[in-house]
Amino acid sequence: MQQTAGKTRHVFITGGVVSSLGKGITAASIALLLKRRGYRVSLQKLDPYLNVDPGTMSPYQHGEVYVTEDGAETDLDLGHYERFAEIECTQESNYTTGRIYSSVIARERSGDYLGKTVQVIPHITDEIKTAIRVFDRPDVDIAITEIGGTVGDIESLPFLEALRQFRQEVGAGEAIFIHLTLVPFIRAAGEMKTKPSQQSVGILREIGIIPDMLVCRCEKPMQPEHFEKLALFCNVRRELVFAEQDVAHTIYEVPLELAKQDLDKYILELMGCHVSDLEMKNWQSMVDRLIHPGGPKIEIGVVGKYISLKDAYKSIYEALVHAGVANDVDLTIRRVEAEEFEQGKRPEELLAGCDAVLVPGGFGNRGIEGKIAAVRYARENGIPFLGICLGMQCAVIEFARTVCGLHDANSTEFDADTSAPVIDLMEEQKKVHDMGGTMRLGAYDCKLAEGSNAAAAYPKGRVRERHRHRYEFNNAFRDVLISHGMSLSGVTPNDLLVEIVEVPRHPWFVACQFHPEFKSRPLAAHPLFREFVAAAVKKNAGELQETGRESSRQALADHTHE
Ligand code: GLN
């Protein structure tokens, strides 16, 4: 399809008034709609902070670090991009101020600027435009770029200036501006107010940007007078003011709500692109199923250390939602703080009624013993268990301690002097001192053992999963773990690295070194999550087969050295 006459069009999305308006979800929704109209889209996020990437930031700062197939550690909005628009993001999909400055400064040091004074304008702005132009490719019809932060922040200025120049250079039809803003409801006045949006558009105009469209986040329905006022004061055509009201059930409703207002159609019209039909049937039925599940209530316990923070395990929670849809059940998540297990609370209380237990990834000591206690509870009680990255490492430590009798077993991340370092750094990692971008990152192939739960879950063919960790399963302990009943059901094709462990005598106990959550999609739940929730459904119905000859509890009790 050459509906854009071979030229990549650009959509720039800025945010006004406050942060956390859901710019990422809006950008991702727009991408989905344009894709469903037959266009090939790309998505990119420009983040105004100085960190070179979010990889070194605590989840308390910006939530989860999302990892791409090619190993970029990125902003969590890229997770929304991949989940909504079903595209694959890359290293090129996320630029920060830090990354832009690093490359300009590196170029200055090597003399590339031929003695010139290096300045924000034009050198930094040129670098930003170069980053945006990465998607000027024959296979991209429409490139969507989201600018992080809020208009008016000092940090965003170079990005906005670069966008202004960009539009000036390419012309109005080839680059459009969408401003996402807030129309708050003031309870005391009983009214919705457009003034904050007017002011935020005012700031954009000072910079030389006039938005083509406004998308207004609101709690309550906007009335005609609000649309008219915004159009008048913000200098935007009346029909190009859209409402994005809070959705009742799920973020996956957002594209459907925007489509009802023909937002995507107007974008195409503004850019002079052909408007073909919009096909959203399977998305609509996924949303319907999510809102009205046919099956029972299933509760999954997630035991982590950033439980109070909704965004820290974003992709895990979303992958569970997808698996709930795939199994057609009413899935709820119980978020359990790992440290509570260490404060004398018993696992049977904290996880009472949970049909399955998941221990996600993480870094650092806090909550480790709690996670290990949760693993033990799930393993000994035949409760379906999924361990991810650190969760897998905890599963190995727990098994080594309780079943193999290596009471001191640990990861050298937590105890450098353990006599049984079942999880340890590889030699090359021991030489690394730089914290940024130095983990095992991105996708690696994985070979599955026949007859395992993992092999049963994945479709036949190549298994490739994303990583983000420094420590690995220590091969020196393979034999002892296997002889006590752990199976290494996934390894790298060269057999060197253990990727998945299972406990075959347990009904469903799978733990993986990689992060399957990053590859789960609303219309295509990840196989491991799907089968994990399927096992939870069986558990809930009392149908879980205690596989193997004896009951799991008995068999493992025989091996327990305590
Ligand atoms: N901290 C562990 C490691 O670096 C696990 C990392 C993770 O869970 N992402 O190996």
Summarize the SSE layout with pairings.
Blueprint: E1 9-15, H1 23-36, E2 41-47, H2 59-62, E3 66-67, E4 73-74, H3 77-85, E5 94-96, H4 97-109, H5 120-133, E6 142-147, H6 157-170, E7 175-182, E8 185-186, E9 191-192, H7 195-207, E10 213-218, H8 224-234, E11 241-245, H9 254-260, H10 263-270, H11 281-291, E12 297-304, H12 314-326, E13 330-337, H13 339-342, H14 347-350, E14 356-359, H15 368-380, E15 385-388, H16 390-402, E16 410-411, E17 421-425, H17 427-430, E18 440-448, H18 453-457, E19 463-469, E20 471-473, H19 478-483, E21 487-491, E22 498-502, E23 509-512, H20 527-540, H21 552-559
Helix pairs in contact: 1-3, 1-9, 4-5, 5-6, 12-20, 15-16
Bound molecules: glutamine.
Glutamine (GLN) binds near residues 361, 389, 390 and 468.
- What's the CATH H-level homologous superfamily of the largest domain? P-loop containing nucleotide triphosphate hydrolases
Give the domain tally.
2
- In the predicted model, the low-confidence regions spanning at least 5 consecutive residues are 547-562
The strands making up the biggest β-sheet line up spatially as 13-12-14-15-23-22-21-18-19
The number of E-state strands comes to: 23
Distance between the termini: 67 Å
Compounds present?
glutamine
> What do we call the CATH topology of the largest domain?
Rossmann fold
Shape: globular
The CATH class label of the largest domain is: Alpha Beta
CATH architecture of the largest domain: 3-Layer(aba) Sandwich
The percentage helix is 25-40%
Binned strand content: 15-25%
Task: Give me the Rg, rounded.
Answer: 25 Å
Number of helices: 21
Alpha-beta content class: alpha/beta
The main sheet comes to: 9 strands, mixed
